[in-house]
Amino acid sequence: xxADLNHLNDILxxxxxxxxxxxxGQEAVVDKALIAIFTNQxxxxxxxxxxxxxxxxxxxxHVMGCxxxxxxxxxxxxxxxxxxxxxxxxxxxxxTLLKGPVFTTFLLADEINRAPAKTQSALLQAMQERLVxxxxxxxxxxxxxxxxxxxxxxxxxxxxxLPEAQKDRFMLKIRMECPxxxxxxxxxxxxxGADSPxxxxxxxxxxxxxxxxDLIRLRTELESVIVRDxxxxxIIDIVRATRTxxxxxxxxxxxxxxxxxxxxxVAAALTGRDFVTPDDxxxxxxxxxxxxxxxxxxxxxxxxxxxxxxxxxxxxxxxPR
Length: 321
Ligand SMILES: Nc1ncnc2c1ncn2[C@@H]1O[C@H](COP(=O)(O)OP(=O)(O)OP(=O)(O)O)[C@@H](O)[C@H]1O
Ligand SMILES: [Mg+2]
Prior knowledge:
Elements (H helix, E strand, L loop, with lengths): L2 H18 L6 H12 L4 E4 L6 H11 L4 E5 L6 H5 E6 L4 E6 L6 E5 L6 H13 L1 E4 L2 E4 L5 E5 L13 H4 L4 E4 L5 H12 L4 H6 L9 H10 L7 H16 L3 E3 L3 H17 L7 H12 L4 E2 L1 H5 L4 H11 L5
Helix pairs in contact: 1-2, 2-11, 10-11, 10-12, 11-12, 12-14
The protein binds adenosine-5'-triphosphate (ATP) and magnesium ion.
């Protein structure tokens, strides 16, 4: 491995270690969150209440020396509640910008589907452009601006499901499962003592391993992870196969190809390799494709799931050797 990747690998190890002081288990989830951060993209987080979604994003922000904010989406949330507004300052006789919560680095957008489309769009535009336009004036957001969004279960009354085009803006969907028995036991023990995960974070026992500027530099180190042409072809074949599969109504677009490529590269680096393998790609296929693929209603009625269909698509494509 070259010096750049050794350095990156060392940093990733230390980040995982510090996050592990707070978050029990969930290693695969932490890695996926790191993949979103290191590719400078955004992620959806899915999981039942109380699996530490909020705590995870707060902890990641802390470990990377980044600012953290949270927005709770509600049906009456307005675009200006996200972006901010220009208010007239009487003393200075001028308008000044009252910055909204998007002016942060790591943003947790909780229950994004509870706000109407106009408000969702304000966030999605900020995500895409890392810019906010208010009264024809453009304001830059942090170059590390990263959104982690949660969705309320769709069956919930009064939700505004994210349109497909908007889900596509999220590089991956991170599923957080409940902890296993042993993990839940160690969580319970920590709750009894004085070292609950939250307190560990608040007491400053968790170190900031890098700064936001380091993050920008580290991303360029990823460029030395090698992706062979055959594997590029493999990625493209997988994504294209979702567009022709008989049980799929809407397949994945070109953003999925890019996401799968970039995600696989970080996945390789997280395993300490300087080259991508077919397995890196396979592990990233589900988080990258699941939220972008829509099944034909007749297959959905049969009880087929998106992940089963993706599994089949994957089986049909020859793995490069
Ligand atoms: N794997 C875990 N590691 C550490 N703490 C955990 C873990 N799972 C749950 N917890 C604890 O569960 C509590 C709830 O965490 P948090 O508020 O982050 O959940 P959430 O997923 O954001 O819930 P909600 O969907 O209701 O917002 C916290 O007190 C946290 O300490
Ligand atoms: Mg929460």
